[in-house]
Amino acid sequence: MAKATTMDELLAAEGDSVKQLAQGEAITGTILLIRKHEVLVDLGAQGIGLVPRREVGFYKTLNIGDEVAASIVDTELDNGYSLLSLRKAAKDRGWDEVVTKMESGDIIEVSPYDANRGGLLVEYDGVRGFLPVSQLSAEHYPRVGGSDKDEILSRLNVLIGKQLTVRILDCDRRANKLIFSEKEAIKDGLAARFEKLVLGDSVKGVVTGVVDFGVFVNVDGIEGLVHISEISWERVNNPGDYVKVGETIDAKIIAIDKDRLSLSIKQLSEDPWMTEVDQFKPGDKVEGTVTRITPFGAFVQISPAVEALVHVSELGGSDEADPEKLFTLNERKEFIVLEIEKENRKISLSLTDKNKKKRQYNSLKG
Fold first, then answer.
1. CATH of domain 198-268
2. CB atoms within 10 A of CB 8
3. Which of 74, 73, 86, 70 lies closest to 26 in space, CA to CA?
4. Within its chain, how far is the Cα of 89 from the centroid?
5. What is the share, in percent, of the chain residues with pLDDT greater than 90?
6. Would the pLDDT of 226 be above 90?
7. Which sequence spans correspond to the domains of the chain?
8. Cα–Cα distance for residue pair 348/339, rounded to 1 Å
9. Rounded to 5 degrees, what are φ and ψ at 25?
10. What angle do CA 92, 112, 163 make, to 5 degrees?
11. CA–CA distance, 68 with 62 (Å, rounded to integer)
12. Out of 3.40.50.1000, 2.30.30.700, 2.40.50.140, 2.120.10.30, which CATH number does the structure's domain 22-90 have?
């Protein structure tokens, strides 16, 4: 009578083809059965694996006979099956890909799936990461006046689902940290574009932000700034009165910094000051409107483009005269032109004798 073969002998005969499963191990199998709330996976000699309901929808399409990669969550359930995770296996493979891309510096394409005030939430190869606002390109950076957080979020929401070109800036598998950068991805291309730019060139750009101190402009992916003093030859109090976000404008390059352009809108047109100043000469009596009052004097608009200064020393013969007591904003008075320095765009004024006497009288009376 033949001797019965034991299970240990059968396993030994299989050699390395059958080995005990270990928690966290990666394994491949074939889809055996698809149910509404679970998927059964044939693991060959290592038995049957079960993918639970919460992971059934992880793959968009699963068919009987498909080969899938899984991670062992539990080696043996009560029913004898092994509990598997398709998501974890995909994430593990994703981390391997992330590390490879990080080390090689490759440029990749991603599409944000959500946003918060700090940036965009991104998933790459099953691994979730973050694209901070500070790492967005000039084209997508939400330039918002006064740091309006709701407006920033609104701008970021527009980027959800949009394909972005990025590099992996930092990754740490143990800390589950993955940071992307759009700025790094376009850096090489920007350097080439910068080399083609020349001081004095006229360029076109799209306004990306209007703030108190000026206007941000996207010039072919390069960030440019039109300072408030370079928007118009006339005095600008609110940049938003001159340009709007999304508007295409022409500007002149007046400086090229390491990663930003300084631009001017007003320098594309002739300075009207140079033309209007020709109507004045020293000794002329002019009427003007007080536009600014400072400790050292008052500024007066004497024509649409020409502003002149009445120095404190011309306010009644005393260096201690207080311009704030002697003038009121927007009042119109008569002045005398003392000096014109065309090369410095500067005109000095003095109060007329009549106004001086009136000011002195009011000062003494007060």
1. 2.40.50.140
2. 8
3. 70
4. 34
5. 41
6. yes
7. 22-90, 105-186, 198-268, 276-365
8. 5
9. -70, 145
10. 105
11. 9
12. 2.40.50.140
How far lies 56's CA from each of 51, 259, 349, in Å? 7, 48, 83
Q: Which tens digits make up the pLDDT trace of 172-213?
A: 988 889 999 999 998 888 888 888 899 999 999 999 889 889
Q: How far apart are CA 8 and CA 83, in angstroms?
A: 24
> Taking a C-beta distance cutoff of 8 angstroms, is the pair 254, 201 a contact?
no
Structure tokens that stand for 36 in this block: 């509404």
Mean pLDDT of 69-83: 82
Distance CA 265, CA 277 (A): 22
Q: Which single residue is written with the structure tokens 């965009």?
A: 120
Same fold, 105-186 and 276-365: yes
Which helix (H) or strand (E) segment holds residue 285: the answer is: strand 285-294
Residue 10, pLDDT score:
47
Q: Which two tokens stand for residue 194?
A: 């910068």
Contacts by 88-96, CB closer than 8 A, 24 or more apart: 89/26, 90/58, 90/125, 90/126, 91/126, 91/127, 92/26, 93/69, 93/125, 93/126, 94/124, 94/125, 94/126, 94/127, 95/127, 95/171, 95/173
DSSP 37: S
Q: Which residues pair with 173 in a beta bridge?
A: none
Residue pair 215/262 in contact (Cβ under 8 Å)? The answer is no
CATH number belonging to domain 105-186: 2.40.50.140
Q: What type of residue is 331? A: E
CA 211 from centre of chain:
14
Cα–Cα nearest to 233, from 181, 203, 276, 173: 276
Assign domain 276-365 one CATH number from 2.40.50.140, 3.30.70.660, 3.30.559.30, 3.30.470.20: 2.40.50.140
- How many residues are present in the chain? 366
Structure tokens at 294: 């400072």
Rounded to an integer, the average pLDDT of 122-146 is 87
